[in-house]
Amino acid sequence: MKPARSRLRFPYLLALSCLSLLSACAGPPPLEAKVRVIDNDPTLSFVNLVSADGMAVGSAVGQMARNGCCIRLPAKWREGITVNLEWKRCTPVHDPQTLVIRDTTCQSHQRAVQVPRYPALDFRLNIHLLPDDDAVIIASHRNHTDPDYSGPRLPEKDYLAELVRHEQRLRERQDRQRAWEHAVELKRAEASGRRGDRADESRHWQAY
User: Fold this and answer.
1) What is the share, in percent, of the chain residues with pLDDT greater than 90?
2) Whole-angstrom Cα distance, residue 52 to residue 81?
3) DSSP characters for 80-118?
4) Which of 40, 92, 138, 190 could form a disulfide linkage to 126, CB 3.0–4.6 angstroms apart?
5) How far apart are CA 71 and CA 36, in angstroms?
6) Over 60: is that where the pLDDT of 202 sits?
7) What are 169-195's pLDDT values in tens digits?
8) What end-to-end distance do the CA atoms of the chain give, in Å?
C-alpha cells in the first residue's frame, strides 16, 4: 500500500514543483505608477484628454497640474522603456465683435517618450507637455514646484490678465462705436437743419 500511495503523491509534487518554477520565471508583478500631467507651454492654451498607452491619465489647465492614475511599468527599470503619449491642446476662439470666448479649437499630438530610471517605491511620473508639441517624463518623489525638482519649471499663465486685456479692448471698441454713432447723429442733425433752412427760404420766396 505504501508504494502505491507514494506513486499517487509523486504527480502532485511534480505539478507543485513546475508551478513554483513558472512563478520564479515570471518575475515580480508590474507596478502601477501614479501620474501628474503638467503643462509647460507658456501660451494661453490648455491640455485635454491626455492618455498613456491608450489609458486616460488626466488633463492640465494653466498652473493647475492634474494628478491621475496610472501607468503600468516593469517592477524593475530597464533601458528602452517608452510610453506612447497622446493629448489634445486646445486654444480659445474669441468672437471678433465682442471678444468673448465662443469656441475652442483642439489639435491632437502623439509622442513615444522614454521613461527615465525610477526607484522601486515612492515616486510619481510627471508628464511635462512642452512647447513645440514635445513631451518629457520625469520620475521623482518631489513635487514639481519643489526648488530641488529636476524637471522643467512651470511657466506663468495669467488667464486673468488676458481677460482684463480682452475687456479693455472691448471697452475701447464700444467707445469707438459710440463715438461713431454720435458723429452720425450730428451729421444727420446737420443735414436735417440744412433741409429745414432751405424749406424756410423756399417759403420766403414764395411769399413774394
Assistant:
1) 17
2) 13
3) T-EEEEEEEEEEEEE-TTT--EEEEEEEEEEEEEEPPP-
4) 138
5) 11
6) no
7) 777 777 888 888 888 888 888 887 766
8) 153
Q: How many Å apart are CA 177 and CA 42, to the nearest integer?
A: 34
Three-state DSSP at 207 gives helix
* Residue 67, pLDDT score: 66
Instruction: Report yes or no: 70 and 52 within 8 Å, Cβ to Cβ.
Output: no
Phi, psi values for residue 116, rounded to 5°: -75, 170
CA dist., res. 112 & res. 134, Å (int) = 10
Question: Which DSSP category does 64 fall into?
Answer: B
Question: Which residues on adjacent β-strands are paired with residue 88?
Answer: 48, 108
Distance CA 123, CA 125 (A): 7
- What is d(CA 186, CA 201) in angstroms, rounded to the nearest whole number? 22
CA distance 112 to 2: 63
- Name the strands in the sheet holding 55-61, side by side, starting at the edge strand that comes first in the sequence: 55-61, 46-52, 82-94, 101-114
The Cα-based distances of 11 to 6, 17, 94, 159 in angstroms read 9, 10, 75, 71
Q: Comparing C-alpha atoms, which of 84, 145, 146, 150 is closest to residue 115?
A: 84
70 strand-pairing partners: none
Q: What is the pLDDT of residues 115-161, one digit of tens each?
A: 999 987 788 899 999 988 899 999 998 888 888 888 888 776 665 66
Distance CA 146, CA 1 (A): 73
Residue 88 burial (CB count, 10 A): 16
